[in-house]
Amino acid sequence: MSSDTIFTKIINKEISADIIYEDELTLAFKDINPQAPFHCLIIPKKPIATINDIQNEDKALIGHLYVVAAQLAKENGFSDEGYRVVMNCNENGGQTVYHIHLHMLAGKAMGWPPYTEKSKI
């Protein structure tokens, strides 16, 4: 799989996005098709295609994605109420861009399980 995805283009500022956080390791931006009142994507700047491609040396980077999520939750006022953070893997897992990313959703109560009637097994 090519590491040149739409996320790479956003990281390189070739495509605009509503960026809400950036540091040397990560970028977070609002999802263009929000599924909750607050829905952003938190991505590593290092291109990693899927969860299956995460290596031992990526442990700190993956942990950093969650640190950023907690910081965004606090800054946006929903850390106490709660939020959902999910990472999809491959086609059947719902992954559409092959550059790992956390979906962070908040601002409403999230039901469980996190699937629609259509996707039930």
TrEMBL record:
Motif Histidine triad motif, residue range(s) on this chain: 99-103
One Pfam family from the record: HIT
UniProt superkingdom: Bacteria
PROSITE patterns, per the entry: HIT_1 (PS00892), HIT_2 (PS51084)
Domain HIT: start-end pairs: 6-115
PANTHER family: HISTIDINE TRIAD HIT PROTEIN
UniProt protein name: Histidine triad nucleotide-binding protein
Species this protein is from: Catenovulum adriaticum
